[in-house]
Amino acid sequence: QAYVSYSNIAALTHLAAKPAWEITGTLDDIKIWTHEEGDMLSLKVEMQVKIPSHLAFSLLSDFTFRQQWDKHFLTCEVLQAVNEDEKIYYVTSPPMTGHKPRDFVILVSQRQPCKPSEPYTVAVKSVTLTSMPPSPEYCRSEILCAGFQIYSDSNSSCTVCYFNKVTSGVMPYLAANLTGSSKSIEDTALECIKFLE
């Protein structure tokens, strides 16, 4: 367990630190970046939020709030509180046209910064739980590496960076967006900012 939670945080930190992120879109308080490597596409969404970083951290690290702003989360329940920094959640997503709804079993690891210059971190990855085997009505999907880094800008503002290493499982949700036919990433980011503020 210690290794899995460490590797969860490490994978997100490693993804965030990769060079050659390309900016693909900007709105007032939102910047969207992508990073391609082989058949892996990673996404970074940077949001400027007018609340203190510790508050953004407490709101974003509790995934039961997630369906209030992210329409890709239909339901979200805590399956297991491993310790105060690690929880395992069961998440369902609404069906895409012609597909079964998806479900995920994810480990969410949270870390407070050791130094003021470091971000708060909320890392997400799929895990396997024998008590939650795949069910026929859902398509069990995997999150390789996703999460948030939250940097303090001032006492009353912070920068929230959302990362997602995209697999073919998440691709249908993003493909429409990256070709510009849908604005779901921007919309979700705007909803996130509105929820936080």
TrEMBL record:
<dbReference type="InterPro" id="IPR023393">
    <property type="entry name" value="START-like_dom_sf"/>
</dbReference>
<dbReference type="InterPro" id="IPR051213">
    <property type="entry name" value="START_lipid_transfer"/>
</dbReference>
<dbReference type="GO" id="GO:0005737">
    <property type="term" value="C:cytoplasm"/>
</dbReference>
<feature type="domain" description="START">
    <location>
        <begin position="18"/>
        <end position="166"/>
    </location>
</feature>
<dbReference type="InterPro" id="IPR002913">
    <property type="entry name" value="START_lipid-bd_dom"/>
</dbReference>
<protein>
    <submittedName>
        <fullName>Acyl-coenzyme A thioesterase 12</fullName>
    </submittedName>
</protein>
<dbReference type="GO" id="GO:0008289">
    <property type="term" value="F:lipid binding"/>
</dbReference>
<dbReference type="Pfam" id="PF01852">
    <property type="entry name" value="START"/>
</dbReference>
